[in-house]
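Changelog note: in this version the structure field was regenerated for every chain. One regenerated record is shown below for reference.
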Amino acid sequence: MTIMQRRVEKKRPTAGEFTSGNQHDSPILQLKLYGPPMASNLKQVWVPGPLIVGAGPSGLATAACLKDRGVPSLILEKETCIAPSWKLRTYERLRLHLPRQYCELPFMAFPPDLPTYPTKQQFISYLDAYVEHFDIKPLFGVEVGNAEYDPSIGFWRVQTNDLEFICRWLVVATGENTEAVWPNIRGISKFRGRALHTSSYVKGDDHRGEKVLVVGCGNSGMEVALDLCYNDAKVSMVVRDKFHILPRELLGISTFGLSMFLLKWIPVEAADAFLLFCARLILGDTGKYGIKRPKVGPLELKSTTGKTPVLDIGTLAKIKSGQIKVVPDVMQFTDTGVEFVDGTHEDFDSIILATGYRSSVTSWLKEEKDEEFFSKKNGFPGTSFPNSWRGNNGLYATGFTRRGLLGAAMDAQKIAQDISTQWNSSGTVDLSCNSKIM
């Protein structure tokens, strides 16, 4: 049916009406807008509400907050499940690093019988229950290859495998940790043992009795080293940079919770001084064991650079006892091991790279230079928290606050409030002339 001007009245959704668990049963209008699609072989699809890219905790929280305000949304997820980073790329030993009350998504608490620090599987079960409770049904196996705002029609064109989605609002929820970072160390292809990133590490039992080198000493590196130690591996850990290590709890109180309380009442410098004083009393001088602290305090460093302090769960005790050996940075890999920057050589059976992740948003999101929201340097919003959630032309970001699940929950609620205001005030959507509903 060809039309000169078509006004589509917005209908308030019932539970699950606008989301779909499979691509062939999606409640979205298919149409042909004026102007060619980004690729001639793509079928165009109109999305009435926001389009969310990513079905991790950030995307799920945003969809739930939108639904609570009566706004339909559609989530695209390139993997075959929700929360793929948690389900497919985390090790068995993983627990939430923060107490559960700081990791809840909006409108749903953790079951009261869970421990303070839920396990990986307990958190995944929580997310599965969250999706079921809010009837969130992402489209799985749909990878975004290109997203670009089209000023001629005032909508976003989002190109996927074989579809081009047209939407007014685009929410980037792919998060901070999309791609594993492999360090550029000479000779890595020569190493004849096992070399893997922590995204592929499963459990220490797979390395029982081996000599293992862990490259990286963030929270993941420290946990993996401890897991290996518990499974009778001979563990060495590369410490390349200065970093802060803090007890996970101080006098039975979460260090994170205590930090948040302190920042409400005293300057960040004073809060840092207090935390470092307590850390020295409990952990001692970590410099004796090859772990040197930066001059800037842990909270100030987190705020300015996003670098998170390590919360110790027992790794430092293994370092002090010599069960985990701290070694200098790697100069190059050899056939059987590595050469360190101090000139020493050592053989290893396996090398595990705890070298972190990076955002990949700018590989598919195309923005005009004068309206650039995501930085091409690091794939993060250019504006800092708490204003990192809204860009231009209906573009939003969630899960890029460097404040974990708590930050993602805050983003989700702000985004939902902002979009719902526009949704409720506009009342109708114009499909421009020469449109054709197919």
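Spot check on this record: Confidence is low (pLDDT under 50) at residues 1-35, 430-438. Residues 273 and 297 are 7 Å apart (CA to CA).
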